[in-house]
Every structure is written in structure tokens, then in C-alpha cells.
Amino acid sequence: MIANADEENKLILSGYKYIAGVDETGTGSLAGDVYVSAVIFPVGIDFKTLLPGLNDSKTKNTEQRNKLYPLIKQYALDWSVATASVEEINELNVYYARFLAARRALDKLNIKADYVLMDGNKIIPEVITPQHAVVKGDQKSISIAAASILAKVDRDKYVVELAKEVHDDFNWVNNKAYYCQAHVAALKKYGKTKWHRNKFVEKFV
Fold first, then answer.
1. Does the model's pTM come out above 0.85?
2. 173 burial level (CB within 10 Å; 0-12, 13-18, 19+)
3. Which DSSP letter does residue 42 get?
4. Domain map of the chain by residue range?
5. What is the DSSP pairing of strand 19-25 with strand 34-40?
6. Which of 26, 120, 153, 169 is deepest in the core (most CB within 10 A)?
7. What is the third-level CATH fold of 6-155?
């Protein structure tokens, strides 16, 4: 099943051409950076033919996401991925850090978006481009779904690299630094690493 493009189609009918879908991953993780992607597709693209099965990253397994990843980059008019660091998350809290990463993703686009669709229920602060938030947007907007794939694949690769620097008991290769029994047990045994988010792990160490 492919995500629908209803949000984009309504905006296209209103005269918008460069519609950026924005989504994040890693907000709920106990460690590591937050990743945000922005994707702009050309008007009139045949999604069902060129990007079959494109949908929310959470509905796809690793193999499916990895297959869609290069296709999104190939057929998107423009795309970007940006991050907010653990240090920024500790300083700002993750709620504001993800918006910082979202602004960075929009700034990295070579084509300036004339409208922004943000996944969730909050728009991106300090962005003057017209925008609105879409609850469950990664299912209702094809560009948000694409952004969710790019952000997820890039962050998973990043966490797998981080896993090489910590004890195997943390099992980040499999849990991607999210909460699970193995991760918490390792925190209690070894303490937090420099990549852990202070407020997220303080009750475990």
C-alpha cells in the first residue's frame, strides 16, 4: 500500500509547486542524534509506478526501506537530511532540538520550498514559509512518507556505527538505541555513554 498524495494535491491545486514534506526519527531514542529529512517531489510524478509501496517508514522493514531509499533520491526534485546533536538535545530538550534539525533540513534544500508539510501536530517554529502540520502525515502525505524513509535509513546507519564504540551488551545494532530491556540492563551495568541523552537515562543510572 502506498501513502496517498492528498495533502500535496490540494496544495498543487492552490498554486504551490515546491512542497516539502518533513519528518523526523530518533525523538524517542535514549541516545544519539535526531535526524530530520525534507523531500520535494516534482508535480505530476507517477508515484505508484516509480515508487511502489512508498509509505511510512514504520510500516517497512529494513530491506524495504533500503530499496526505497535510492529511488526517493532519484525521483525527488530535491531532498535533504539534517541532524540535531546529543549536546543540542541535552541543552534544548528533544522537542526543540527536532525543530532545529527540521529548520536545518529545509535550509539544506537547493530548491526553496514554497510550502511545508510537517509530520505531527505542531508546525516548525521560526519558519516563514507557509506550512501546516499533518497528524500521521507519513501515511497521508507522500513527501512526508519519503522523508520518513530517508531519515530512518540514515539514522539507522549512524547508530550502527556508534554501536562499534560501545559494549556489545547495549545491542544498538538491533535496538537502534531505543528503550528495551537489554539497553537498560547495559546502562545499569556500564553507565551512560557520551551519546546518551541525560534526561532520558537519568532514572536508569
1. yes
2. middle
3. P
4. 6-155
5. antiparallel
6. 26
7. Nucleotidyltransferase; domain 5 (3.30.420)
